[in-house]
Amino acid sequence: MEQRLAIADLKGWIRADDNIEITPLNQRHEDLSSMINQCRSTEPIIDKTILDDLQREFGIPPSQLFKIVRAIEKYSRSIFAVVHYGDKSLKQFFLDFGINERQLKRINSISLNILRRSLYGVLFLKDGKFFSKLSVGKRFRRTITISSTLKPDGNLENPWEAVVYATKKYIEYRNSDDDDWHLFDMDKHIDDNERSHYLQCLVKYPSPTELVQYTGLFIIRLNPNIQIRIAETLSNSVLGGWLPINTKYNQREFYKLNPFIQYLQQHPDFA
User: Fold this and answer.
1) What sign does the dihedral 86-87-90-93 (CA atoms) show?
2) Gyration radius (Cα) of the chain, Å
3) Which domains does the chain have, with CATH numbers?
4) Which tens digit of pLDDT belongs to each residue from 130-160?
5) How many CB atoms neighbour CB 173 within 10 A?
């Protein structure tokens, strides 16, 4: 029943044409040329134009968008597989619920170009190293990132709220070799001094997509006593490990992380 309700929230609101109207990149960020693949230290910000674009797309106030946004988030990966990889079984699944191919393309565009255009994350540092994750079978190394989601009251999560949620999903911690592992709640274990640094960058994806995506990372220097790892529930599909900061890495394999690694290499006091 929940599945049917979620899809119904999509079917009634998605138009069957391809082009969506979004706030241009140069209106979302100033001085674009100095931000593409180049980091700067700043304060975390919420991309409020996301709400503007959602309201323009659906014609309703933010407080009424919650169910629609949740439905898009729930099915975005499946719809991406249909649109970009031609997954026939998933395509038939949506067709059976009355969502046509043009609507699927539009939902995918809303997901990529509005809901997921800004990423927030955390880069853990310790003993001159940074923590990264690698999905099994993939070759791109990344850190913990997430898009800010819409809350029931119609407001977007702030960057710290989004990152705390993602970290509790992906990361476990312990204080010594003899302790049990627990999900890592940064609200409880990271103080203001440890999260005082935030880097932002417009990351340009490799061809053929060449998508430009805002990424902001909290730079967290872990207490020497804290050990972290990828959560055990994800360990079969995601690997995690520490890598030295002052090493030259393959830019294509680290394309999302590379601007941040370069910044830390160029600002050793910051790291």
Assistant:
1) positive
2) 20
3) 2-15+45-115 (no CATH), 118-266 (3.90.79.10)
4) 999 887 767 778 899 999 999 999 899 999 9
5) 20
